[in-house]
Automatic annotation (TrEMBL):
The keyword Flavoprotein does not apply. It comes from the Bacteria. InterPro entries: dGTPase, dGTPase-like, dNTPase_2, HD/PDEase_dom, HD_domain, PHydrolase_assoc_dom. This is Deoxyguanosinetriphosphate triphosphohydrolase-like protein. Gene3D superfamilies: Hypothetical protein af1432.
Amino acid sequence: MTIDKEALGFGSGERAIYATNPWASRGRLFPEASSPTRSDFQRDRDRIVHTTAFRRLKHKTQVFIGPDGDHYRTRLTHTIEVAQIARALARALKLDEDLAEGVALVHDFGHTPFGHTGEDALDEVLKPYGGFDHNAQSLRIVTKLERRYADFDGLNLTWEALEGLVKHNGPLLTREGEGTRGPVPQPILDYCEIHDLELASFAGLEAQVAAIADDIAYNTHDIDDGLRSGYLSFDMLEEVPFLAGLMREVREKYHHLDEDRFTHEIMRRQITRMVEDVIGVAQERLKQFKPQSVEDVRAAQTTIATFSEAMATTDQQIKKLLFRHIYRHPDIMRIRAGAAQIVTDLFHAYMADPTLMKSHFWVNHISGLNTPAKARHVGDYLAGMTDTYAVRVHRELFDRTPDLR
């Protein structure tokens, strides 16, 4: 993909006409005075970093459970990598870097312990009460569950930050009001009743670069972690032509690299090629649509910051490689089954006796709620747990806890 280097925003400080303007934000649900030293999007990013939800990410699993080793990614290290890539893309495209970084930093707040395994388990037990969706849970955290400010629950983020959080993967509704990926989670619909996030439109480019940065980051670091764990080998990477080409390139330039350096040289090239591909595609689509404002970006009816067709094929090939050799590996599946059992056991224990949720701030009011409301509170509590805390409380409540090693 060809890049227009003269159009890049590196070092210019210039914000493009189609970028989201922090000085023209749609504001917050609860009006606040502006800061004399920071834009509204800077304040959003800073509020996100100072949350308990952000701190908990350090003990939440990405792929490999914590006891597997200190060098594997966690939700926190993944989030930081996503934010770095999002900010690089935003700078190249002359977007608001603070908004892109903020969306990247908050995008995984709603994830449960034990990665997607925990999410699947919690969704299963909550199905009678509306199910569980980590994106909807992220919205609940930043609009309701974080309790830091005297004047409101949540973080009172700007409309643009909340839009990016909810719609970074695209619209949730068609123009006819149908769900684009199935029914819209009820927590999102409920919030939009009081603060409409316009679910049928695309998000601004800052959210779009955060979304594609997520894909780039986890594709790359799951390969890195897979090689470190032994579930992947360099021979397996040959199954993906793009990766085979990167390895050939590194071998031709460096003849005697140790495995760690060889892996890093592959990974840095992978990130670079994917980032450059997205920049090239975005530049071409911006020339095509000629948006004169962020509203034109929202109305474009397509994603602007995305992979080319060739890189999208590579992306799918990498995902298939990871599923075949890591995500569905018998060892990982055994650990996933144990993690799911922990989440399921804790849900039923807390539903039977909500007072067991000793640190939950609504614990004294839950017993009097109807079952769906009680289940949602239990879901909030479980989703907020770290891997280590979930294992510890399971050991306290049950005679046997699955071995997650």
